[in-house]
Write a structure and sequence with these properties.
Layout (H helix, E strand, L loop, with lengths): L4 H10 L5 H12 L4 H11 L2 H11 L6 H34 L4 E4 L1 H9 L10 E5 L4 H10 L3 E2 L6 H10 L2 E5 L6 E5 L13 H6 L2 E5 L2 E5 L5 H11 L5 H9 L6 H11 L3 H15 L5 H9 L1 H14 L13 H17 L4 H10 L4 H4 L12 H21 L10
Parallel strand pairs: 1-7, 2-5
Antiparallel strand pairs: 1-2, 3-4, 4-5, 6-7
């Protein structure tokens, strides 16, 4: 990939630990002319403003503009407020789940931040992600409803609800009082073949952290890298913060070998090797030389890298094309899909992905089929997709943001 000077600044500033040589190199690049607006847009897209601000200020560069510091500080303040609100909400919900005897594991968000960095407020989370056993999903939902949450999104019919639970890994809820959003997961990935989920094993091996005075369980430490790899690869590593988390889950050089072996057992060896290459090249992750050589010689890894270039090559790394535009269509409907198909060479995985193309909940809102005819939805799904594209273009012409979907 062709790395712009701005992306080099981004990667150097986000590396840890910050050595004197790294700071010298960062100051050298900053002394040249850089497009600071690209860096600010990148901080917004990748949701890393607080980390970027602290590292850039630590460099002591006299070429760091005051307006850049002000904007990064503004973004970081918004992220801090969101993190504090989520920490308080988890502190409120955790005892409620415990009283209902519902086992809950925190995914990503403030729980992951506490596990990886010892600071629940360091990451910039969108929502609270909670994993429960499929058998306890109804009980967990009841707790959220009792806590004042309501379902987000459209009301689904019985047939739609059953299809949603089959094809989508989580259900969204929102607290209308404070705006906090919760995603309740009943498995780790939309495609169950991507990453097997044995909740009982995860619960037995859980790691516990303290958040807002409550004890909260997270994923087992030795399985964090595999989960973060599957999650990041499943989203084509569109946000660099996911790669930062992955690198933080592999603090030691020899841990990369164990991570590859674990990934290979579930068919994600290629995805893990590509993640290691990216973390090494961009974030300076100390990686086992043998695994690094394997990754660079692997044709499937090279294929993934070529696809990922459409998200990071040249100026693409800081841009977020609008849905409904040609650039958005190519990124989200072509390149993202292609990457997700390539991360695992398993016919069951591909079969589930292919069938999933015909079941997109976003289309249910534009094609209202009665339950008696819901079986025909895969046939008319292309019509729903076309209607959404037309509506997205209409929104853009009126200066409104296009709705974000996974279709």
């Amino acid at each position: 990939m062709r790395m712009s000077a701005e992306f080099q600044v981004f990667c150097l500033a986000l590396r840890r630990p910050q050595s004197s040589d790294l700071i010298t190199e960062l100051r050298r690049i900053l002394a040249a002319e850089v497009e600071w607006d690209h860096i600010l847009d990148g901080a917004r897209r990748h949701r890393v403003a607080s980390l970027l601000l602290s590292r850039l200020q630590r460099s002591g560069s006299p070429d760091l503009p005051a307006r850049v510091v002000a904007e990064l500080r503004r973004q970081a303040l918004i992220a801090a407020k969101e993190s504090l609100a989520q920490m308080a909400e988890i502190g409120r919900l955790a005892p409620m789940f415990a009283r209902a005897e519902v086992r809950v594991l925190g995914l990503k968000g403030v729980v992951l931040s506490a596990q990886l960095y010892g600071n629940p407020g360091l990451r910039n989370p969108r929502d609270i992600d909670l994993l429960v056993s499929p058998d306890e999903f109804a009980s967990a939902e009841a707790v959220l409803l009792e806590a004042g949450y309501c379902h987000s999104g459209a009301t689904l019919s019985p047939r739609q609800t059953a299809a949603y639970r089959r094809w989508i890994k989580d259900v969204g809820y929102v607290n209308p009082v404070n705006g906090v959003r919760v995603e309740l997961h009943h498995r780790l990935s939309d495609n169950p073949v991507l990453l097997p989920c044995d909740f009982d094993t995860l619960w037995r091996e859980r790691e516990e952290v303290e958040i807002a005075g409550a004890t909260v369980a997270g994923l087992p430490r030795d399985k964090l890298a595999l989960y973060l790899c599957a999650h990041g690869a499943g989203h084509s590593w569109e946000e660099l913060r996911w790669l930062l988390d992955f690198a933080a889950a592999l603090p030691e050089q020899n841990s990369s070998r164990a991570a590859v072996e674990m990934a290979e057992r579930v068919g994600l060896g290629v995805a893990m090797l590509h993640a290691l290459v990216l973390a090494h090249d961009w974030l300076g992750l100390c990686t086992d030389d043998q695994q690094l050589a394997r990754a660079r010689a692997n044709r499937n890894v090279a294929r993934l890298n070529r696809v990922l270039a459409h998200f990071y090559d040249a100026d693409a790394w800081y841009q977020s094309p609008e849905r409904g535009t040609l650039a958005g269509l190519l990124r989200y409907s072509l390149w993202l899909r292609l990457y997700t198909y390539l991360i695992k060479t398993d016919w069951r995985y591909w079969g589930h992905q292919a069938r999933r193309e015909f079941i997109t909940p976003a289309d249910w809102e534009v094609l209202h089929l009665p339950d008696a005819l819901f079986w025909a939805f895969p046939i008319v799904r292309p019509v729903g997709w076309l209607i959404r594209q037309i509506k997205s273009r209409a929104h853009l012409r009126r200066g409104l943001p296009a709705r974000k979907t996974n279709g």
